[in-house]
Amino acid sequence: MNEPKYEAVKQALLHQIQAGELQPGDKLPNEEDLMNQFQVSGITIRKAMTELANEGVITRIKRKGSFVNGAQAADNSSHLIAFILSAEDNFDVSYMKIIKGAQQAAAEFNYSLIVEWSNENLAVEQASIQKMLDRKVDGFLIYPFDPIQSKDNYLLIEKNDIPYLLVDRYNVDHPGYFSGCDNYDGAILATRELIRLKHSKIKFASFHFFLQSEQERFAGYCSAMRQAGLPVTDDDLLTCIDYDALVDSIFKRDVTALFCSNDKLAIEIIGQLTGRGVKIPQEVSVMGFDDWDHAGNLSIGLSTVRQNFEEIGRNAANLLNQVIQGKTHGGNTKILSGVSLVIRESTCENPYV
């Protein structure tokens, strides 16, 4: 059978790279020049280039061109980074922003990013990791659903001596490289704002309290409350919300503000409370955390703590590159992105003071 035209182009370019005619870091001819050189269509050239990129032989950078991967020729490096996301909602724009930031940073040092979704399933996460190990990736970025439960999956990577970095969530008992936001200071900012609005009966509502990130936000809330001379008891942490009981507490003025561990929970709470006749923010103020894309587009705009998701992704890829290049050692470096307060309509001064 005749060899497909794209395969002939691919093999010809591979031969040039292996023979040293194209050196590591060299820019390949553009699509039009390759079409003329091989007397084939643009579709054929793009197919050949895509295969070379998927195999880690070249890196394609938008608006710059295609380049021979120097590490590929020198040390059999794939120039591939795997990003494993154990996501609760694959359509959440915050994940897309993290991926975008990581891709942009990876491209700057000629790495391609391969994204795998594992949907909160440890077995699927492990299978994704093994699949990427088989592809000989140079490193992993991992956004885990539960970093404690995923410990055995990390050990699989460690046994293969491949560097990896956790994004957004980490296991405090299993030190590692990490990129996330400053949860503690963000929670202090949010709680102090509610206190500035003359709220003293503030409760913290948790979404997944097993996560270190939520525990850090609760610790920030506790710190701000105590610094203001306000007591914090076990009853101030809501991990399983009884909405009827919460509404009763609001109408009795035992709760005047809620600080939610993330925007998804804050939006759910606003829906549940307004459905039971609670006026927001007149009867209770609600504060979130994340500045999720929907937070400003609700009928009641959500006051929240903004984290820069693209920056988290960029920090993750940059730090992983440092580890791959041997410029960072120790296995316990953490980069925290800054946070800021965004005030909208869901909070107001306590009218009952």
Characterise the protein shown here.
- The longest helix is centred in the N-terminal third of the chain and has 16 residues, at 93-108.
- The chain is elongated.
- The strands form 4 sheets. A 6-stranded parallel β-sheet has the order 4-3-5-6-7-13, sandwiched between helices. Strands 9-8-10-11 form a 4-stranded parallel β-sheet, sandwiched between helices. It has a two-stranded antiparallel ribbon with strand order 1-2.
- The chain has 353 residues and is of the alpha/beta class.
- It folds into 3 domains: 5-74, Arc Repressor Mutant, subunit A; 78-181 and 309-336, Rossmann fold (3-Layer(aba) Sandwich); 183-308, 3-Layer(aba) Sandwich (Rossmann fold), CATH 3.40.50.2300.
- The protein is built from 12 helices and 14 strands.
- The chain has helices spanning 5-18, 31-38, 42-54, 70-75, 93-108, 122-134, 151-159, 183-196, 212-227, 243-251, 263-275, 309-324; strands at residues 58-61, 65-68, 80-85, 112-117, 139-143, 164-167, 177-181, 202-205, 237-238, 257-260, 285-287, 304-307, 334-337, 339-342.
- It comes from Paenibacillus vini.
- Pfam families: GntR, Peripla_BP_3.
- Keywords: DNA-binding, Repressor, Transcription, Transcription regulation.
- Residues 3-71 form the HTH gntR-type domain.
- InterPro entries: LacI/GalR-like_sensor, Peripla_BP_I, Tscrpt_reg_HTH_GntR, WH-like_DNA-bd_sf, WH_DNA-bd_sf.
